[in-house]
Amino acid sequence: MKPGRRAVGIAASDRERLSHLAGAVVRADRVVDGFAFGTCTIGGSDATAAVCALIDQLDREDVRYVLLAGIAPAWFNILDLQTIHEHTGLPTLSVSFEASPGLEGGIRDAFDETEIVSRRLVTYRAQPDRRELSVNDETVFVRSVGLDPDEAAAVVRAYTPVGGRPEPLRVARLAARAVGERDERAERER
């Protein structure tokens, strides 16, 4: 992969009612090249729209990939990878860092209303399967739209120079946490 090829990593940091989203544009050679910020609702259904708006806010024609930290930020606010891919025209990958039996049981346990559970399960079940991937002696789990599994593995590895977290997601997570902590401090000072 060319060192100047850019990906946007999007990660969330949950606070009381809002999840702070950060998008970090990072080149394959680890140069950070831009940020955008947004929010979505804890327990809501607006994460996909928030991610699309964040990418629109970046307005970067040089970004080649979208990397998402997981598939359910903000307490089961399920991301629809196909919708994000169609909106951006970019290969879209969700990378998670823990083995799991899936989210269906958690979704059922988290919500009382049958209709809310049904809508989330429909979105969740429509996502591509997770594939286990070894990266730098660590294991991650990748879903992808717009790339075949081998291409997706190559992208994740190209943006992960050390450890198991792709650099765009590592930087985005740090930025999302910083914004969330800033907003908490501002709220306490009011």
As residue ranges, the low-confidence spans are: none
Radius of gyration: 16 Å
Second CATH tier, the architecture? 2-Layer Sandwich
Largest beta sheet, briefly?
A: 7 strands, mixed
* Beta content: 25-35%
Average pLDDT reading = 96
Helicity range: 40-55%
Structural class: alpha/beta
**What pattern of helices and strands is seen along the backbone?**
EEEHEHHEHHEEHH
Assign the CATH superfamily.
Answer: archaeoglobus fulgidus dsm 4304 superfamily
- Kindly report how far apart the N and C termini lie: 48 Å
- DSSP helix count? 7
Strand order, biggest sheet?
Answer: 3-2-1-4-5-7-6
> What is the name of the CATH class?
Alpha Beta
**How many structurally independent domains?**
1
Work out the number of β strands.
7
CATH fold type? archaeoglobus fulgidus dsm 4304 fold
Structural shape: globular
Quick rundown:
This protein has 190 residues and is of the alpha/beta class.
Overview of the molecule:
This protein has seven helices and seven strands. Helices cover 40% and strands 28% of the residues. The chain has a single domain (6-189), classed as archaeoglobus fulgidus dsm 4304 superfamily (archaeoglobus fulgidus dsm 4304 fold, 2-Layer Sandwich). A hairpin with a 2-residue loop joins strand 6 and strand 7 (138-145). Helix 1 packs parallel to helix 3. Strands 3-2-1-4-5-7-6 form a seven-stranded mixed β-sheet, with helices on both faces. The chain is globular and about 50 Å long. The longest helix is centred in the C-terminal third of the chain and has 23 residues, at 167-189. By secondary structure, the chain is α/β, with parallel strands linked by helices.
